[in-house]
Amino acid sequence: AKSIQWHWPNLYGEDKFVVLLGGLHIEMAALKVVGDWLDGSGWTDILVQSGIVTSGIAESLLHAAHVKRTRHMHEVTAASLYILRWQAYNNYCSDSDSSCDTKLEFNAWCTEMSAKHPLFLYWEIALQLELRVLQFIRSIRLADFDLYNTSLSSLVPWFFVMDHSN
């Protein structure tokens, strides 16, 4: 498609057509970005120790070798991180040392925890990144072009940050 645009710019130039990868290819690239973010974090060790996957499969999840399996593991991871974050907040709320007046709302608590604890910040970023990828997948399945544009706009910086510009 790019060759056609370059050879006949008056008819099919870049100002007339936008060439995009297909949804599957963008999803695979996005899953590889998440895999690069999680590489070395212990995520694969957690999956192996919990008995969900073997060590070979866990490593293949980082490279999105099997899209459906990788997508499922990121869905499970996002759900687990979401649940753990709320459990930690509920523990904070039920803490007897804090008075009712000084307790933070959930979003403010997440911001404070991210500022205090680098590990919390890391997993908060991982959760947000996984949710962006899942939002992109949802946009394709629903054929929602506005959601597609929004989700791609939120993913593009990650492609460059994680050196996946192609």
How would you characterize this protein structure?
With 166 residues, this protein is mainly alpha-helical. Helices cover 73% and strands 0% of the residues. It is built from nine helices and no strands. It has helices spanning 2-7, 9-12, 23-38, 43-49, 55-62, 67-94, 106-116, 118-142, 145-161. Helix 6 crosses helix 8 (118-142) and helix 7 packs across helix 8. 15% of the residues are buried.
Shape: globular
Q: How many individual β-strands?
A: 0
Number of helices: 9
* Beta-strand content: under 5%
What is the straight-line distance between the termini? 16 Å
The average pLDDT value, as a whole number, equals 91
Helix proportion = over 70%
- Give a quick account of the main beta sheet: strands, pairing sense, barrel closure: none
Q: Rounded to an integer, what's the Rg over CA atoms?
A: 20 Å
Helix and strand content put the structural class at: mainly alpha
Helix/strand order? HHHHHHHHH
Poorly predicted runs of 5 or more residues: none
How would you summarize the topology of this molecule?
Elements: H1 2-7, H2 9-12, H3 23-38, H4 43-49, H5 55-62, H6 67-94, H7 106-116, H8 118-142, H9 145-161
Kindly summarize this structure in a few lines.
With 166 residues, this protein is an all-alpha fold. It has helices spanning 2-7, 9-12, 23-38, 43-49, 55-62, 67-94, 106-116, 118-142, 145-161.
Question: Which tags fit this structure?
Answer:
mainly alpha; 9 helices; 166 residues
